[in-house]
Write a structure and sequence with these properties.
About 70% of the residues lie in helices and about 5% in strands. By secondary structure, the chain is α+β, with helices and mostly antiparallel strands. The chain has four domains: about 1-40 and about 235-375, Multidrug efflux transporter AcrB transmembrane domain (Multidrug efflux transporter AcrB transmembrane fold); about 70-205, Alpha-Beta Plaits, CATH 3.30.70; about 410-445 and about 610-770, Multidrug efflux transporter AcrB transmembrane fold; about 470-555 and about 565-595, Alpha-Beta Plaits, CATH 3.30.70. The strands form two sheets. Strands 5, 6, 7, 8 and 9 form a five-stranded antiparallel β-sheet that branches. Strands 2-3-1-4 form a four-stranded antiparallel β-sheet, with helices on both faces. α4 runs antiparallel to α8. The relative contact order is 0.11. It is found in: Membrane. This is Transporter, RND superfamily. One of its GO terms (biological process) is protein transport. Keywords: Cell membrane, Membrane, Protein transport, Translocation, Transmembrane, Transmembrane helix, Transport.
């Protein structure tokens, strides 16, 4: 009754579509306009908040205690040449700083020129840059503690354009353009090379690269679809039509993305080629069935209704199981993975609606007007009726004959050696799950982007010159920031960590500024410290002190993200915490270790235990969904087992291809379930259809492989070609994800034709025997009861 109700509903929908075809196309066009408007609201996202949820305790500490109060970020202008201790060069730097002083969002600029003027003022009372190179050289060489970091050697100087850590992406871009303009205005001597770099330029460049590569990915995915449709879908008219239909669904998805507020990140941008690969299957299924109905039905109106009535529910069930696999992505604590799941879920729904409404409507209209073509009528008079159809069907059977025979032989072989096949598949699965634990995790954003990106090359060059800039940030809450015991503890603890921990290279805090103004020592009274605080410029003091109750201690850890990875940073953080227990802060003082790198520790949990939990949740959801639909434990379990085996194989593939887990590859389990389960479900549906018609398990699986095996291969090929666009992405993270995904889809097809047949025959035969034995026992009991 339930099946009848669903088919009855879709039959009514079929009549509605048939009777309102032009209205549907008009509404579809209006939705394109609405979607285009919504797409304008899409924002790029590449910051920390795309990796770590804002409700995470680690992010809360980072955001409230550090980012909003202390954090600054800098655009770095690096000048390199033969001799940088040069009066003409310093005057150019001074002109550049003057140009930037009125720029909105710039807190301050720090350069050798401004420091030279400060030292010269202390020495001569003149706040100007000296006119001779000798004077410049004497000032720099005589004050290494001041100039050591910004004049690292005789050939480089660094100029920092400092902005607040919470500066928006748009404001960062404006300040970057202002900095580049100021470089032009300053008229640096021609013998010097000027490089504008730092994290803000890197992020701006990465967002631009993401935006530009999106069009390339979609274009390549579309091109690959054209190629595969030309070869596997040429037995129908208008064989390329599924592509514009699915692209229409993509347009609607872009619109929904803008209205809902889903940001475009490195992960979410990969959703669209995936949607083309998955969504085009829906358009193909409706297109194929409608062509079949148009050829065999006397009534063209009835052909539309029958297509929607029969194919609509079947594709909807497949979509539902795919969606359940994707739903598990929402449980990830990584926001960009959650957005990835939302996009995939919205996208498959949009592609389904586009296929059932626009796809079917367009084909029926094409068919209607092609019949009115006068050339076609003349051709029909010349050729015997039905001749073209007969030739086409014979050609199609000839082409499919080899594939069908091959699939039947494969089925025979796998069932003959069922124990061996299932045993090897299971062992490979277990082996893959075991080595999967050894697959490393990568969260360094710089490894995710094109390695030849100019902004990344400049950033790496700066790192080579001045060393790494990764930090551990210690927020120290105190009763009084002028407490000498607190400052002395900061001094001792900083010295201990720098000397005793090889990955901590230097420390910065308010303490060196205090000692500098007190003959190299910390005063013994709060009053003296308060007097020194009054002398320190606010711009310097604000970096390390907030009000009367908060201080900041920074530990420079070099290139820790690249050298020791996030796992190493987590270990280093734990060591610092242990050191604080051994060398405790004064009573009434609390210390919180935070910072951008510490927050990424949260990602480690999400990409280890989090991805495992995500995969198992997907398994449970799909299993429950299948049981609700079929109310049969065998039908619920059989499609899941091959996909679980593929998940294990996938771990082995990643290990042997030496591909690391990233926020993208962490989603593979859910993707395999969502995409691959469709093949097993289609095989199972046809298997039980043949059994219901009276076939034995062996006959049923033979007919299943022969009748829909070729269609499933064609469907899998379209999906593989959709994912293939990811492989050529300039972003290594997306490219590696594409490689593994293509391999996984191929393995899902392999499991469908190698693991599924012996599995379903073994389990179904076992259940039939058990039912037969139970029925025999019941019959004996009845006979014994009758005898009594």
């Amino acid at each position: 009754m339930r099946g009848f109700t669903i088919k009855n509903t879709f039959e009514k929908l079929g009549f509605f579509i048939q009777n309102n075809r032009f209205s549907i196309l008009l509404v579809a066009f209006l939705f394109i306009v609405i979607a285009t408007q919504g797409a304008q609201n899409i924002e790029m996202a590449s910051g920390t908040e795309t990796f770590v949820g804002k409700d995470s305790p680690l992010y809360q500490d980072y955001d409230h205690l550090y980012q909003k109060i202390f954090q600054t970020q800098s655009i770095v202008v690096m000048v390199e040449g033969n001799e940088v201790k040069n009066a003409d060069l310093m005057k150019a730097v001074d002109r550049m700083e003057h140009q930037l002083q009125g720029t909105e969002g710039v807190i301050e600029t720090t350069s050798p020129a401004s420091l030279i003027k400060m030292v010269n003022y202390q020495m001569t009372g003149r706040y100007v840059i000296p006119d001779t190179d000798k004077e410049i050289e004497a000032i720099i060489d005589g004050n290494p503690e001041i100039f050591g970091q910004i004049v690292p050697d005789n050939t480089h100087i660094l100029i920092s354009v400092v902005m607040a850590g919470s500066t928006s992406d748009a404001a960062q871009e404006d300040i970057l353009y202002a900095t580049e303009d100021s470089v032009s205005f300053a008229e640096f001597p021609p013998s010097y090379n000027i490089i504008v770099t730092g994290d803000p330029p890197f992020m701006v460049s990465m967002n631009y690269e993401m935006n530009s590569s999106m069009g390339v990915l979609l274009g390549l995915s579309g091109l690959f679809m054209v190629i595969i449709l030309f070869f596997v879908f040429k037995h129908v008219r208008w064989g390329l039509l599924p592509l514009p239909v699915v692209l229409l669904g993509i347009i609607y998805t872009f619109g929904a993305m803008g209205y809902i507020g889903i940001s475009l990140s490195m992960v979410s941008m990969a959703a669209f080629p995936i949607l083309i690969g998955v969504g085009i299957d829906y358009a193909i299924q409706f297109h194929n069935r409608l062509e079949e109905e148009l050829h065999k039905s006397e009534s063209k109106e009835r052909a539309v209704v029958e297509t929607i009535k029969n194919t609509g529910p079947a594709v909807l069930i497949a979509l539902g199981m795919t969606a359940l696999g994707f739903v598990s992505l929402f449980t990830s604590s990584v926001p960009m993975i959650q957005d990835f799941g939302k996009l995939l879920l919205i996208g498959i729904i949009m592609c389904y609606l586009s296929s059932i409404f626009v796809g079917i409507t367009t084909i029926s209209l094409f068919d209607k007007y092609s019949d009115k073509n006068p050339l076609k009528k003349i051709a029909r008079k010349i050729k015997p009726a039905g001749l073209d159809k007969k030739k086409k069907s014979e050609k199609k059977r000839g082409e499919g004959h080899i594939t069908e025979k091959l699939l039947q032989k494969t089925t025979d072989l796998t069932i003959r050696y069922d124990i061996i096949v299932l045993g090897i598949a299971s062992l490979l699965c277990l082996g893959g799950l075991y080595v999967d634990q050894s697959v490393p995790i990568e969260t360094d954003v710089q490894t995710f982007v094109p390695q030849d990106m100019p902004a990344l090359v400049d950033l790496a060059h700066m790192g080579d010159i001045m060393g790494g800039t990764d930090e551990l940030n210690l927020i120290i809450k105190v009763k009084d920031t002028a407490n000498p015991d607190v400052l002395k503890w900061i001094d001792r603890f900083s010295e201990h960590e720098v000397e005793g921990r090889k990955h901590i290279y230097s420390a910065s805090s308010i303490v060196p500024l205090v000692k500098e103004r007190n003959g190299g020592t910390i005063p013994d009274t709060s009053q003296e410290i308060e007097a020194i605080y009054a002398e320190i410029p606010e711009s310097q003091k604000d970096r390390y002190m907030y009000g009367k109750n908060m201080l900041l201690l920074n530990f420079n850890i070099g290139n820790a993200v690249a050298d020791i990875k996030v796992t190493g940073i987590q270990e280093l953080t734990d060591i610092v915490k242990q050191d604080m227990q051994w060398m405790p802060a004064p009573p009434g003082t609390s210390v919180t270790i935070t910072g951008n790198n510490v927050v990424f520790i949260e990602v480690i949990t999400a990409l280890t235990s989090g991805r495992v939990a995500m995969t198992f949740l997907g398994l449970i959801l799909v299993l429950a969904g299948l049981f609700v639909v079929y109310r049969d434990w065998l039908k619920a379990v059989v499609p899941i087992i091959p996909m679980f085996i593929v998940i294990g194989w996938s771990g082995g593939v990643m290990y042997y291809l030496d591909i690391e887990y990233t926020p993208m590859t962490a989603t593979l389990g859910a993707l395999i379930l969502g995409v691959g389960s469709e093949y097993a479900i289609l095989m199972m549906e046809r298997y039980f259809e043949e059994k219901d018609a009276g076939a034995t398990p062996m006959e049923a699986i033979h007919m299943t492989s022969a009748k829909i095996g070729t269609a499933i291969i064609a469907s899998g090929a379209t999906t593989v070609f959709g994912f293939l666009a990811l492989v050529v992405s300039p972003f290594p993270m997306i490219s590696n994800f594409g490689i593994v995904t293509v391999v996984d889809v191929l393995m899902a097809l392999l499991a469908t034709f190698v693991v599924f047949p012996p599995l379903i025959v073994v389990l179904d035969t076992w259940r039939e025997k058990r039912r037969g034995a139970t029925a025999e026992k019941e019959a004996k009991k009845q006979i014994q009861g009758a005898d009594v």
